[in-house]
Amino acid sequence: MEAGNAGRVMSCRPAWLARPTKPIPQGRRVKQTLLRVTSYNESDILRSYEENEGNGDVIGTVPTDATLSKQSLRGNQSTMLDDSGPLVWQELLSTPEPEMFGPRARSASDAAVLRRKGHLKEQDKFIQFLLDMHQTHTCLEVMQKVERWVEEHRQDPRASRLHRIVPTIGSFFTPLRLVDAFMEYDQFFALSRRQYVPPNFAEMRHILNIAQIHASAERLRLVTFDADGTLYADGAHMKHDNDMIRLIIQLMRANIHVAIVTAAGYPGAPERFEHRVQGLLAAFRSLDLPKEVTDRFHIMGGECNYLLRVAGPERRLEFVPDGEWKSDFMMSWTQEDMQRLLSDAEALLLEGATRLRLSVDVLRKERAVGVIPKTPTIYEVLEDLAITVQARLEASLPFCAFNGGNDVFVGVGNKSLGIEALMSYLGFSPAEVLHVGDRFTDSGNDSATRDCCSILWVANPEETIFFISLMLGDIRKLKQDPYIE
Fold first, then answer.
1. In this structure, are residues 470 and 210 in contact, taking their beta carbons and an 8 Å threshold?
2. What whole-number distance in Å separates Cα of residue 57 and Cα of residue 87?
3. What percent of the chain clears pLDDT 90, i.e. is strictly above it?
4. 204 with 130: CB under 8 angstroms?
5. Cβ contact 144:187 at 8 Å
6. What is the pLDDT of residue 170?
7. Annotated catalytic, 226?
8. One of 57, 226, 446, 474 is an active-site residue; which one?
9. In this predicted model, what pLDDT tens digit does every residue of 210-262 receive, in sequence order?
10. Is 177 domain-assigned?
11. CA distances (Å), 42 to each of 47, 154, 242, 355, in order?
């Protein structure tokens, strides 16, 4: 190709491609991640809890096509960075439906849940802004600038550059060392060395998660989890073989409170909540966890309407009396106002379903109402139905209208109010709290939590396992080698 032609071609390419990528500065320390492999079956899962206690670097089972055998991994637990990157990052590419892909390289956006629900589950104005910046900046330059802007936003949220560019941006309760997170992630995903393929949404989300984990680990006192799609698959329950059981118990033993914050609400029926986490409660009993540990577990049901705790030698769930934990604002909600909100929401849901020619069943609960399609439909239809209620429902009380993936529900209150009440009940500040969820889009019921605490955005339960394992590794390292100013 002639020089003149080359110049014309390069001029139409985005900056991340047209300009030489900046190499990682020599001597810059990159975080090493330890990996030890275990394989579980249902018969020995409870024994594994004890064997692995204190070993948060245990990630899971190595895929059968892994290039290293289990024996070689056990012999070299400290996996060094090489041309292929640390093996641990391969866990981030795992998917619950591998047969859908066949024998090919995986992508950070391969999660089946994202493909099944299209790009609607990848909607976020801040992350989209980061992606757009790559048209005029290299990856490293994007992270350098945004790291500065995040700190500026923390100092003055209303007048910050980020607020002007992304008016809907939430709060940042900790600094985010995005440059360090990018360098760590770049070792495997080669963002700085790719010439023709720019970073995608999932990769930006992963980098933000890594930065948040490293920022939160030192002061973390409470981790809250969404349930469906975060701790277990949509519509499933936490059974005895769920890998998150081991990680939740490790968090609790590290003096960190854990709460599951879910839209599911069963007033007066704690046994129905128990059924959803039966594997976790069985582990509490099998390990004979002391009360001081089980006291660090709660379930927030109905977004913010019911709080449960572990009680008694049988480690059963019981409701915490409303007066002990609800805010004055929440206690002021009247039955008349709540039922009016739900009736108006139901009318809008049915009106929208008629417009969309969607046949539905209506499920009315004490503090929520929803519609469930009678016949298969697409995610976009449910998305439109949820956003219709968000845009048109006028109510005197806060509410959450969300697309559940298989249904659309409207509930009184939202997860932000629930987490804020739990933080006040336990005595924690926003910087000490982290919410992990999979629905931070406009129609997701996790999005409201951005304004009350730090967040981790995951695509599926496998990502939750990966990032919480990374978090436990940070916590353990901080205890062994505390930072001194």
1. yes
2. 13
3. 67
4. yes
5. no
6. 87
7. yes
8. 226
9. 999 999 999 999 999 999 999 998 888 999 999 999 999 999 999 999 999 99
10. yes
11. 10, 46, 9, 47
The catalytically annotated residue of 110, 180, 228, 446 is 228
Which pLDDT does position 121 carry in this prediction?
Answer: 55
> Tokens at residue 123, please?
């909607």
Q: Which amino acid is at 361?
A: D
**Distances in whole angstroms, Cα of residue 455 to Cα of each of 257, 347, 401, 431, 435:** 16, 33, 20, 11, 5
At 373, is the secondary structure helix, strand, or coil? strand
Is residue 35 one of the residues assigned to a domain? Answer: no
Number of structural domains, the chain? 1
C-alpha distance from residue 469 to each of 6, 212, 256, 281, 362 (Å): 47, 14, 14, 21, 40
In a domain, 7, yes or no: yes
Structure tokens at 341: 């909100």
| Residue bearing tokens 């039922």 | 339
CA distances from 283 to 120, 167, 237, 277, 316 (A): 37, 45, 14, 10, 12
Domain coverage including residue 209: 1-22+121-216
| Euclidean distance between CA atoms 61 and 24, whole angstroms | 31
3-state secondary structure of 379: helix
Return the pLDDT at 481.
64
Q: What number is the average pLDDT over the span 175-192?
A: 95
pLDDT digits (tens, 9 = 90+) for 286-336: 999 999 999 999 999 999 999 999 999 999 999 999 999 999 999 999 999
Residue 167, in any domain of the structure:
yes
Query: What are the two backbone dihedrals, phi and then psi, of residue 300, each rounded to the nearest 5 degrees?
Result: -105, 115
Tokens found for residue 181: 């997170």
Tens of pLDDT, residue by residue over 465-483, are 999 999 999 999 998 865 5
Q: What is the dihedral of CA 398, 401, 404, 409, to 10 degrees?
A: 90
**Whether residue 110 lies in the annotated active site:** no
Range among 8-17, 52-61, 93-102, 308-317 rated most confident: 308-317
